[in-house]
Amino acid sequence: MHSMPIEQLFPVLVDDFQSTILPQAIQYVIFISPVVLAVMLAVFLWPLWVRYVRAKQFLSLKYTVLEIKLPKDTFKSPLAMEVFLQSLHNTADGSSFAKYWKGETRPWYSLEIASIEGKVKFYIWTEDRRKGGVMSALYSQFPGVEVHESGDYTQSVHFDPKTMKIWAAEFKFTKPDPYPIKTYVDYGLDKDPKEEFKVDPLLPMLEFLGSVGPNQQIWIQILIRAHKDDQKKLGHWFKNTDTWQDEAKKLVNTMLIRDAKTKITGEIDPKTGKIVPAKEFAKLPTISQGERDIIEAIERSVTKLAFDAGIRALYIAKKEVFNTPFGIGGIIGNMKHFNTESLNGFKPNGDVWHNRLSDPWQDYKDIRRNRYAREGLAMYKRRSYFYAPREGKSLVLNTEELATIYHFPGSVAATPTLERLPSKKTEAPSNLPT
Fold first, then answer.
1. Checking CA distances to 321, which of 99, 152, 230, 288 falls within 20 to 30 Å?
2. What's the pLDDT score for residue 38?
3. Tens of pLDDT, residues 71-102
4. DSSP state, residue 293
5. Is the Cβ–Cβ distance between 223 and 109 less than 8 Å?
6. 324 and 354 belong to one structural domain
7. 199 and 187 Cβ atoms separated by less than 8 Å
């Protein structure tokens, strides 16, 4: 049998491909194209559908802003606020039908402190259908407070670049989430010291807010949602990222391994010649007292309920009184009272809004600054952070950390413009909404 020469074999192969293989391949592509098209449409249109049903749900709901007026004498430690926050920890986001057809989401709240020309007030924003639970939980922990629905203080502000300036920023951690910030426990407030001996990290912020002058406002917003380990890993459809607790364990283990004097990965038994299973350490790791304190702080932190959180601040003022060192510097500086070098802290997120603009030539005629001002004001008014239109990267803060940066100060707070009630209530009102 004689083999066909190469120069004759190639035309035969080409003819066979054109007459048989190519038509079959085209038929196969046509056959599966509806399935491929359906999958592609699902991949691209599904996120749009979820956004649509959520937006529809958000628009159908009513929201309320609760103003909290404090009694003249407040002796509760931040632990009371921590207990209150535990009542807001709700990870339920409904069934698949509720989530993807009705647009239900995990409930979120906004804890706010606002200074309007120096008058300092505490607010909590919530869905109208949840206000009864919020008010009941507040009265249970703070019997002397007065909680009432107020108009949304943000709605009276409309940005006019000709007459006013707005600086908007969001904050992020200086270290990974499992590192805790400096909390009220570190300041000794969990031991209920006498008022004159209290060192409250929130007081400098309140004093600063109380010094805001005419035609200026500073708003601070802490948006919270119960933390749930359901974040998808980048590039994976079904695999979730490491949990908050898993990240903490890895950090602790890394510190222990780094400081271990000897780490054995395996040995050969001289009698049997087999590899002995690896030992974790040949001897106990030797770590410094500072490192031991860090490990203890991380391990204590992850035992408490956690929230996803977004922190933002706005400085709003008329152009003629806008004071960058006072307003912007004051906000950033007072957030540092919760920072430690060895653990965690807050700093402005350089990836959003005005923190992107470090040099004057980056913005022609303030076009970008004005756009960022409008965006920051709009997102603050909407209390948007976890879902569209603003989907920020959440911080993970436990109840102890949140109670540190948002709590009702005792009578040691001498800020004259912090509104307090002239007399103390004896009991909560009996007609709370349900």
1. 152
2. 74
3. 877 778 899 999 999 999 998 887 788 888 88
4. H
5. yes
6. yes
7. yes
Residue that is last in its domain, among 293, 313, 332: 293
Does residue 6 fall inside a structural domain?
no
pLDDT digits (tens, 9 = 90+) for 351-405: 777 666 666 666 777 788 899 999 999 999 999 999 988 888 899 999 999 999 9
Nearest to 402 by CA among 329, 332, 333, 306: 306
d(CA 107, CA 284): 45
- Using CA atoms, how far apart are residues 118 and 101, in angstroms rounded to an integer? 45
Backbone angles phi, psi at 147, to 5 degrees: -115, 125
| Residue 272 sits in the same domain as residue 159 | no
DSSP output for 233-260 = PTT-SSPBPPPHHHHHHHHHHHHHHHH-
| pLDDT tens-digit map of 264-302 | 444 545 555 454 555 444 444 567 788 888 889 899 999
Task: Please indicate, yes or no, if residue 70 is contained in any of the structural domains.
Answer: yes
Q: Residue 415 contacts by C-beta under 8 Å, 6 or more apart in sequence?
A: 120, 203, 206, 207, 209, 210
Identify whether residues 280 and 255 lie together within a single domain. Answer: yes
- Report the candidate in 220, 39, 230 with the shortest Cα–Cα distance to residue 121: 220
Distance between CA 398 and CA 396 in Å, rounded?
A: 7
Q: Which helix (H) or strand (E) holds 205?
A: helix 203-210
Same domain assignment for residues 213 and 286: no
Choose among 226, 256, 231: nearest CA to 243. Answer: 231
- Cβ of 33: how many Cβ atoms within 10 Å? 10
Residues 256 and 280 in one domain: yes
Distance CA 270, CA 264 (A): 16
Write out the residue range of the structural domain in which residue 355 sits. Answer: 64-95+103-227+305-421
User: In whole angstroms, what is the distance from residue 309 CA to residue 398 CA?
Assistant: 9
